[in-house]
Amino acid sequence: MKKVLAFDLDGTLAPSKSSLPPQVGKLLDQLLDYFDICVISGGKFGQFETQLLKGLKSDATKLSKLHLMPTCGTQYYKFNGSNWDQIYAENFTDDEKSKIIAALNEGIDMLGYRESKVYGEIIEDRGSQITFSALGQDIVTELGDEGIRLKEEWDPDSVKKNSIRDYVAKLIPEFEVRVGGGTSIDITKPGIDKAYGMQKLIDMLSITKEDILFFGDRLAEGGNDYPVKEFGIDTLEVSGWEHTSHRLETVYDAIK
């Protein structure tokens, strides 16, 4: 039996930048009786608070078994009984941030992918990760379902994201540049991706790869969940939170 269930957030546990659906929150709460649960995503911790934690009605004992890894595992938070402690953060220096932001701006301008209408910042400093969001960080907050639709339609074949990634990666080869979500590019220190986060979790919990089952919606090669699969952890690909909910019901029914 697995000891840890690990999840991507956007597109896996919840719609992009949207609240945790109640049925998913209920299932996670039930499964915390049997497993440690890890959520790893490109979002910053504040996004975890509004998107995940507000919809998770678990007591302190259960929350102590929840492991939060924002910004693709470059940060790790653990519940201390009353608050969330940051255990580590692989933060950039100011000079590194400036170099990354300059490279992103050059890439999107040279390729012609700077949108005239955006919602919030398009380049966000998340401390340990710099993220480019083509339509702005706040599009779903401001437009709701319409924002989700616009994000899905912006680059359905990933041509734009891959072009930006390839261009920017050549400018800053000393950093990790990868496609994030449907409209985003994430940049971290080299060698840091979701597999890095999983290795940190393994070390902290004194477990093995075989003890983890990972759920993600971008497990194909090139997707931001793929490093977990390549790392050798058992994975389940899902097509959205509804699919995840169905999978979790199956897991829960098998063990309760």
Automatic annotation (TrEMBL):
<dbReference type="GO" id="GO:0016791">
    <property type="term" value="F:phosphatase activity"/>
</dbReference>
<keyword id="KW-0378">Hydrolase</keyword>
<dbReference type="InterPro" id="IPR043169">
    <property type="entry name" value="PMM_cap"/>
</dbReference>
<dbReference type="InterPro" id="IPR023214">
    <property type="entry name" value="HAD_sf"/>
</dbReference>
<dbReference type="InterPro" id="IPR006379">
    <property type="entry name" value="HAD-SF_hydro_IIB"/>
</dbReference>
<protein>
    <submittedName>
        <fullName>HAD-IIB family hydrolase</fullName>
    </submittedName>
</protein>
<dbReference type="GO" id="GO:0005829">
    <property type="term" value="C:cytosol"/>
</dbReference>
<dbReference type="GO" id="GO:0000287">
    <property type="term" value="F:magnesium ion binding"/>
</dbReference>
<dbReference type="GO" id="GO:0009298">
    <property type="term" value="P:GDP-mannose biosynthetic process"/>
</dbReference>
<dbReference type="InterPro" id="IPR036412">
    <property type="entry name" value="HAD-like_sf"/>
</dbReference>
<dbReference type="Pfam" id="PF08282">
    <property type="entry name" value="Hydrolase_3"/>
</dbReference>
